[in-house]
């Protein structure tokens, strides 16, 4: 029997989001540090939220092309288990960040067409995990969290030598089909469990995780 699907709830903004995600069975919680995002939070808020997360649930900080000064501040202020790199970080930069901070790194790769897939192989050589996300639409002001799905058939049957998460436009209604089609054992969601951008909904989080784990 295969292990239960693990779910990451990304972009938590309120203290109450932590017990909502934890009691629903999340395996990862994600904090966004990107000022243009409606989910962006300050370091103090992130630290207060992170201290509420029980042992065994991974606290992930998401940054976009962050420099060392930003990452130094972040890792000094917030207890973290993983860094998620969601910008144009090169494989060399991924390696440098892993070494400098001693934390596992998950590299996000945006997928829209088959031409985007070789990037996943490239980053699988340096990152600890991959986040297989939808490529942002042209003109989007953020590289993720856009409630946009890609064609899951593009990665049906594909596997990488490191653990990976499926992301992009997932909802309580479509997550079971996405898992069935792609074979993903880890799932990431943000917009699909929100009542409005940046506002997580405890009921939607429960419904999402239940649907993911039942599939
Ligand atoms: O969520 C954001 O606002 C965000 C901003 C900047 C970079 C990345 C961002 N989100 C990345 C995530 O991990 C999301 O959970 C992932 O893209 C899926 O988002 P959604 O389609 O909204 O479920």
Automatic annotation (TrEMBL):
Signal peptide (UniProt feature, chain positions): none
Keyword Nucleus: no
Pfam families hit by this protein: PRAI (PF00697)
UniProt protein name: N-(5'-phosphoribosyl)anthranilate isomerase
E.C. number: 5.3.1.24
Molecular function terms, GO-annotated: phosphoribosylanthranilate isomerase activity
Membrane-crossing segments per the record: none
GO biological process: L-tryptophan biosynthetic process
Catalyzed chemical reaction(s): N-(5-phospho-beta-D-ribosyl)anthranilate = 1-(2-carboxyphenylamino)-1-deoxy-D-ribulose 5-phosphate
Keywords: Amino-acid biosynthesis, Aromatic amino acid biosynthesis, Isomerase, Tryptophan biosynthesis
InterPro entries found in the cross-reference section: Aldolase_TIM, PRAI_dom, RibuloseP-bd_barrel, TrpF_fam
Lineage: Bacteria, Pseudomonadati, Pseudomonadota, Alphaproteobacteria, Rhodobacterales
Protein encoded by which gene: trpF
Residue ranges constituting the N-(5'phosphoribosyl) anthranilate isomerase (PRAI) domain according to the UniProt record: 7-210
UniProt record similarity statement: Belongs to the TrpF family.
EC category name: isomerase
Involved pathway(s): Amino-acid biosynthesis; L-tryptophan biosynthesis; L-tryptophan from chorismate: step 3/5
